[in-house]
Write a structure and sequence with these properties.
Two copies of one chain form a homodimer. Chain A has 200 residues and is α+β, with helices and mostly antiparallel strands. Chain A folds into two domains: 76 residues, Glutaredoxin (3-Layer(aba) Sandwich), CATH 3.40.30.10; 104 residues, Glutathione S-transferase Yfyf (Class Pi), Chain A, domain 2. The first copy, chain A, is built from ten helices and six strands. In chain A, helix 1 packs parallel to helix 3, helix 4 packs parallel to helix 6 and helix 5 packs across helix 9. Chain A is globular and about 50 Å long. Chains A and B meet through strand 6, helix 3 and helix 4 of A and strand 6, helix 3 and helix 4 of B.
């Protein structure tokens, strides 16, 4: 029996983009369903049924069973469709590092993202500081943690879509402050999975 | 060469307790170092050096290399000392469920925990609602997700230490509202690793 894979999503969601990139990387065919609209504050009955705890997209429904929370979905995809190269290294210490930077993405990059639009200089400065931490961590490595594209890259790359609007509306330019991150993001954009998913 | 394992911790930390339970479950010998004091707002130089990003305990230093963030440390311990039974099931869907409830522990139980002490009834009610979600999820299972003690149990059980103070100071009793959770916590407390770690 063929797998039935359905993604409940909203096109502009950076968390949904992580899952779309993961599915594209693994070559998984799926049905895309727009089941929420942030602007109109709409959530479908199917979404509320499939994610009753958080009531949030993205939700991956695989053969009828829902998986919620973008990073958990990405790990699930990696473990189910494991014929393609895994996104976590085999070494436990490197795996911990990959999880650390993935967690950093949620807590610091997305978690503090409202402060980009803050009118307070020190809040914007604190947000930029998070990118400088990433800049230092990446150094001269091609990707986060290991030499190959992986879990932390998927978790982090979807914020690249914000860079233009931050420059336009946020009164500072990440491009100018963090050239290493920008070079990494452009490297990621060479992957079809990412170029097709992130907004232009 | 024997493993050198050092835990930077603070005795009252529920996050530190997760790591102590994990190390005890695996029978890992380690050096315990109190490197922070929440009350006095003290953090040692060693802690700042080993966790420069978050500057928080717990940190596990294994043969000189630091691992940070309690849930990442617990997974690391599981993967390094893998001769004892693993805390994550082998089935990808069950693994995703274990990660979901572990993530719920951080986002909802610890994340919303300040509202326990709120003077607003609706905030306390929302906090209690999180426990009712857990109560429904556990149902008649002995442990979260699978029949054996695992990742989500380690992540969740350290809040059991709060029940007494919530009852004393928080104006409501989780025991009375969530008997299934209390029975599960008492089941966990039969494990030496947990009975020795949680406050009496």
């Amino acid at each position: 029996m063929a797998d039935e894979v359905i993604l409940l999503d909203f096109p502009l969601s950076a968390f949904g983009m992580r899952v779309r990139i993961a599915l594209a990387e693994k070559g998984v065919k799926y049905e895309y369903r727009e089941e929420a609209d942030f602007m109109k504050r709409i959530k479908s009955d199917l979404l509320l049924k499939m994610n009753p705890v958080h009531k949030k997209i993205p939700v991956l429904i695989h053969n009828g069973k829902p998986v919620c929370e973008s990073l958990i979905i990405v790990q699930y995809i990696d473990e189910v469709w494991k014929d393609k190269s895994p996104w976590l290294p085999s070494d436990p210490y490197q795996r911990a590092q990959a999880r650390f930077w993935t967690d950093f993405a949620d807590k610091k990059i997305y978690g503090d993202s409202r402060s980009v639009w803050s009118t307070k200089g020190e809040e914007r400065e604190a947000f930029l500081e998070n990118f400088k931490v990433l800049e230092a961590e990446l150094g001269d490595k091609p990707f986060f943690v290991s030499d190959t594209f992986g879990f932390a890259d998927i978790a982090l790359v979807t914020f690249y879509g914000w860079f233009y609007s931050i420059k336009t509306f946020g009164q500072f330019s990440i491009e100018a402050e963090c050239p290493t991150i920008v070079a990494w993001a452009k490297r990621c954009m060479q992957r079809e999975s990412i170029a097709r998913t992130l907004p232009d």
